[in-house]
Amino acid sequence: MTRQTGQISGAVGGFSPPQINSVEDTGLSPLWLQDLILKVLYFRGYLTGFKIAEEITLPLAGVTDQLLTILKQEKFIEVKSSQGGLGEGAYTYGITSQGVLRAREAMERSQYAGPAPVPFEVYNEAIRRQKSGRLTVTTRTMRQILSQLVISESTFQRLGPALNSGSSIFMYGPPGNGKTSIARAFGNLVLSQNMYIPYALYLDGQVIKVYDAVSHSLAPETEAGNGNGPTGSLRTNTRRDPRWVKIRRPFIVVGGELTLEGLDLVFDDTTKFYEAPFQVKANGGILLIDDFGRQQVRPRDLLEPLDRSA
Fold first, then answer.
1. What value does the CA radius of gyration of the chain take, rounded to a whole number of Å?
2. What b/e string do you get for 37-65 counting C-beta neighbours within 10 Å, with b at 16 or more?
3. How far is C-alpha 126 from the chain's CA centre?
4. Is domain 29-115 annotated with CATH 1.10.8.50?
5. By three-state DSSP, how is residue 63 classified?
6. Predicted confidence (pLDDT) per residue in 37-69, tens digit
7. How far apart are CA 259 and CA 29, in angstroms?
8. Burial environment of residue 293 by CB neighbours within 10 A (0 to 12, 13 to 18, 19 or more)
9. Minimal CA–CA distance to 77: which of 108, 59, 100, 58?
10. Are 98 and 75 in contact (CB under 8 A)?
11. Beta bridge partners of 240
12. I need a surface site. Which of 78, 136, 166, 242 has the fewest CB within 10 A?
């Protein structure tokens, strides 16, 4: 079964991460962001202002520097040295004993110490805008992506309209007749398109990790090393919200090992934050359920959470 969790649109659809000019633009509480910085320093040790901005994926000017100034004034962090430049970014910061106490209090709620999350409602709107278009697959395109397969003309004529529908596709037949190969060919087509997803979500005080280096492939221009990747430089005046990462539209494959737990939020009792389930990580792309019906749960029970998340 191939489930298109979002209609495929060209490039990045109608969404581009908005500008971030102030702490208010993040949609997050300043106190929550201050706690995030303290947890980063608690775990990482001494860091420059530039490095802190990269760790929490927020611009230095107007955002991270304001948070650092408040933390200094309240004696939660202190300047240990300077890298020879001017401004908050060039200073090396360390957490104070008072800051350690506050960081530990914050870690009792959640030990998440990574990229600042995006509010859940902002994510929902971004996904809707990125699936507003639909990729129209022509007969020529179909023959190209299926050129390595031998299929009947009647089957070929059914596949095109199914893919163009932008909805879930159910393929059935005896083992070895090419169902998985056809689905993977569709997946390769999806991977030619790009979209934006956040590193993490914020919902009712909880963090949900979305970006997964195993499930998601960075778009070429955002690969690490060119200054625009997950830890790219935030020293410039670029104001695009760096909490979002540009990826290939996801193509996630699950099989007989899929359980109902795999379709629910996964909470880590140690780190105290959530991991997004398969269907959320596949948003905007394709979730392929291979060997559908061989899972250790009833097919109907398996489809219900997917229908709720559609």
1. 22
2. bbbbbbeeeebbbbbbbbbbbbbbbebbb
3. 12
4. no
5. helix
6. 999 999 999 999 999 999 999 999 999 999 999
7. 36
8. exposed
9. 100
10. yes
11. 19
12. 136
Write down the residue that tokens 């499930």 correspond to: 215
Strands 206-209 and 200-203: antiparallel
pLDDT score, position 85: 63
Which tokens belong to 263? 């379709």
CATH 1.10.10.10 range(s) for the chain read: 29-115
pTM for the model stands at: 0.81
Structure tokens at 296: 């250790």
C-alpha span between 175 and 198 (Å, rounded):
38
Q: How many helices (H) and strands (E) does the chain have?
A: 10, 13
Name the token pair of 286: 């394709």
Q: In this structure, what token pair is assigned to residue 182?
A: 């056809």
With residue 247 as reference, give the H or E element that holds it: strand 244-248
Tell me the H-state helices in the chain: 30-44, 49-56, 65-73, 97-109, 120-130, 139-145, 153-164, 179-190, 278-281, 299-309
Judged by DSSP in three states, 107 sits in helix
* Burial of 170 (C-beta count, 10 Å sphere; 0-12/13-18/19+): exposed
* Residue 243 pLDDT class (50, 70, 90 cuts): very high
Cβ-count burial of 32 within 10 angstroms (0-12 exposed, 13-18 middle, 19+ buried)? Answer: middle
Place of tokens 């709107």: 125
DSSP 24: G
Q: What is the DSSP letter of 80?
A: E
Pairing verdict, β 118-119 and 206-209: unpaired
Bridge-based pairing of strands 47-48 and 91-95 is: antiparallel
Q: Are 15 and 126 in contact (CB under 8 A)?
A: yes
Q: Bridge partners of 197?
A: 245
| 181 CB neighbour count, 10 Å cutoff | 13
The closest of 88, 39, 83 to 62, measured between CA atoms, is 88
